[in-house]
Amino acid sequence: MKLHPVYPLLPRDRGTGRMTTWGCLWARGRCAPEDRFRLIGEGGNPVPLQSRITAYWPDGSVKWSSHTADSRFLGDEIEVIPVSAGEEEPFRGIGILKRENRWTLEAGKLTLEINLDDPEHLFERVSFEGLPYLEKGRPCLKTEERHSGGSRSVRETVAYRPVITGISLEEEGALQCILRAEGHFAGEGGRTIFPYVIRMKIGYDCEELSFQYTFLYDGDEHRDFLKGIGLAFGTPLSGPLYNRHVKFDGDRGLFHESMVHLLSWRPRIPEHLYRKQMEGVPLALEGEEGKMVRGILPDTPHWSEYDFCQDYSDHYVIRKKQKGESLSSLEAVHGGRSSGGAAFGSESGSVLVGMRDFWEKYPSGYTFRNLDGEEAEAEIWLWSPSAEAMDFRHYADRGYNSVCYEGYDYFGATPYGIGNTSEFTIRCQEGMIPTDGELRDFAAYAGRPNLYVGDPDYYHSLRAFGYWSLPRSGNETERWIEEQLEGILAFYADEVDRRNWYGMFNYGDFMHTYDPVRHNWRYDMGGYAWDNTELVPTLWLWYYFMRTGSGTAFTLAEKLSRHASEVDVYHRGPYKGLGSRHNVSHWGCPCKEARIAMAAHHRFYYYLTGDRRLEDIFEELKDNEQSFYHKDPLGDFYEKGEMTLPSHARSGPDWSSLCSNWMTRWERFNDRAYRDKILRGIGDIKKAPLRLISGPDFEFDPGNVSLQYIGERTTGGTHLQICMGAPQIWMELGDLIEVEEWKGMLAEYGRFYFLDRERQLEESDGLIGEREFTFPMMAAAMGAYGAWYLKDRETADRTWSQLLRGLINGNDRDGFLSRERQGEEIPWISTNFVAQWCLNAMVALEFIGDSLPPTLDDVVELIHRSRGDGFR
Question: pLDDT at residue 12 above 80?
Answer without folding.
Answer: no
